[in-house]
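Q: I'm writing up a methods section and want to include an example of the input and output format. Could you take the sequence below and give the corresponding predicted structure tokens, formatted cleanly so I can copy it straight into the document?
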Amino acid sequence: MDDTDRQILTMLQENARISNAEISRRIGMVPSGVLERIRRMEERGLIEGYTTRVNAKQAGQRLLAFMFVNTDERVGVVRSAQALAEIPEILEVHHIAGEDCYLAKVRVADTEALAELIRTKLGKIDTITSTRTTIVLETVKETSTLPLDSEHKAVA
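A: Here is the clean output for your methods example:
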């Protein structure tokens, strides 16, 4: 990834709907060259996809929580992680080091919906031995935008 790729990716992260013509105008490159670079980054897996960010509060998902999940699985077994990942309210599942096995990011309407999620959906996963839930009071920063300046070199 060179500086031109970084510039293109930065613009796409800011606005995935930006046109190739606008990108080419901003970086002084022909649109076909921009398109070719984007296609190469998609093929290499550097660009994984394009999405729409939805305002969770306006969509009725006002409560954000993080769950620490413990399981009784042996090391290397990922059934619990796969089961957690299938639950729509769980936005992220991370296998973590330390006292707990997984960290899950959860979005639901309210505390009643969170209790129902824990009772019904997590309760069905027989390998889960315990959970600890932390409810977010306020989000100061939440982004999926990666820093792509020259200090943050990509792995080839």
